[in-house]
Amino acid sequence: MAKNDFKDYVCRPYCIFFKEGHKEEMSCRGAEVVEKLVLLGQINTDALPHFKKDSRLWQKYTNIIGENICVTCPFRAEDCNFMSEDPEAKPYDEIEPCGGFIMLALLIENDLINIAGLEKGL
Ligand code: SF4
Known about the structure:
The protein contains 6 helices and no strands. By secondary structure, the protein is mainly α.
């Protein structure tokens, strides 16, 4: 069955902050970007493998995703510990980013999207 809702392919499988049945007014920028890539046909949700989360990737892609995606995320300022500039909120291996960030890192690492696309301001 096709997965048409980003909650199905981003939030439920990858996001520790997702709460079933809890209505969020906003979505994180990472999930929005993944959804846009799906709508543009650049990601086929039916052909996606189930990725295993890998905390090494969060650090590896913090700068590229942070500078291109998180910078415009409505959660960044107050709710996102992962992108917080407060040193108490680190290190990375103890704090997970949102599912959108995790999925983008996994997609880049597995050559399913390229960094240039993110830099063009998706
Ligand atoms: S890691 Fe934080 S700032 Fe970046 S997209 Fe996710 S919630 Fe937003």
